[in-house]
Amino acid sequence: MAKDPVVHSSPAATGSRFQVExxxxxxxVTTLGDKITASGVAAVAAAVSTYLNSTLNAAxxxxxASATGDLYLTVNAGRVFCAVAPGTxxxxxxxxVAVLKTAGSTAxx
Length: 109
Hints:
By secondary structure, the chain is of the alpha+beta class. The chain contains four helices and seven strands. The mean pLDDT is 88.
């Protein structure tokens, strides 16, 4: 039976136009009406790199690989889709939303 997504934050909670959900080791950040700019893509990649290389410990990286089978990140104009270790969803969600809220990371879309 499929799991329902867990909503980590909504536009009202973040004070921005982002919806953050996770399910089964996957985190999805959706921009609602805005587009992620090139600098936003770079900022998201840096945030995910920090998460994978500095925030997670070895056991969490192992759990991540077990849950998802791979480490991945996909960013397009309106969505960030990435692997997330069990129990760390809010940490990664907070980091991604923080960089997307930075001026220049998104544009009206």
